[in-house]
């Protein structure tokens, strides 16, 4: 089983920055792809950014050139650096990962979410 714990959310003014962290713990053989999703009130959950175990990244068009996803494989941690934040970035941000928990078993896990609020 894998547990994901997010941190780094909070209240920030437009144009400000935040850095989210998500650490994986538990029993697993390896962590494969990791990503960040977000869900704003009244909207669907959407993919913000993802990163493979090899470092290949993918971003939503709305956050390209503003957000940067990275990971530290030794620490089983994924980060999301968010710059030039806008009010429309306000949402609960969720960490997601697929982890190999058996010799031939891979399963997806979600964190509890962390609130990001961008407001004057």
Describe the fold and architecture.
- It is a single chain.
- With 120 residues, the protein is mainly β.
- The protein is built from no helices and eleven strands.
- The protein has strands spanning 2-7, 10-12, 18-26, 30-39, 46-51, 57-59, 67-72, 77-82, 91-102, 105-110, 114-118.
- The strands form two sheets. Strands 2, 4, 5, 6, 9, 10 and 11 form a seven-stranded mixed beta sheet that branches. The chain has a four-stranded antiparallel beta sheet with strand order 1-3-8-7, with no helix packed on it.
- The mean pLDDT is 96.
Blueprint (SSEs and pairs):
Blueprint: E1 2-7, E2 10-12, E3 18-26, E4 30-39, E5 46-51, E6 57-59, E7 67-72, E8 77-82, E9 91-102, E10 105-110, E11 114-118
Parallel strand pairs: 2-11
Antiparallel strand pairs: 1-3, 3-8, 4-5, 4-9, 5-6, 7-8, 9-10, 9-11
